[in-house]
Amino acid sequence: MRVIAGRARGHKLQSVPGDGTRPITDRAKEALFSILGDWIYETRVLDLFGGTGAVGIEALSRGASYAHFIDRNRKAVQTIQANLVHCKLDRQGTAAAGDSFAFLESYHNEPFDLIYIAPPQYQGMWHKALTQIDQRPELLSPYGAVIVQIHPREDEELELNFLEEYDRREYGSVMLIFYASREELAEDDEDGDEEYEYEDEESEP
Whole-prediction pTM value? Predict the structure, then answer.
């Protein structure tokens, strides 16, 4: 794993010992940030189930202003902290040991522009986290986005009130599903706004 672009380009990232994390492939990560483009600049990022911290660190490298990582696995938190230091991004990122669901329930500070959800596979954790965010709109900044990373076989329909899916991409074993405020998406449709029209990046088989 490596940082693909930006200030920390080319820096290799440590992996978390064991197999309890869900790392994103470089191919899927490169496609994700090609889709987000310059939108990521000066954003606040929440990287839930942080693992190696690869997504949040890539965001920081490309100009995000702050990233908060959370993982209940202390080895993962140590790995994230080491990767932040290695990439010289430790002043812009914080890694905390804790439960992602408890964090979503108790957090009451400044909202995030991007919330990334990539929990361990096949445990139904992604839709629990997404439902929590749906029930707490104040977690997300205006025109913010929630992105879920799952295996395609985990995909299932969810009934959401605040959030609405607006895009999805598949890169082999990685599926990325994009969500935003239902009201803001409707306003964009009415106004012909392109706030959520990120640069197109074709999915790969």
Answer: 0.91
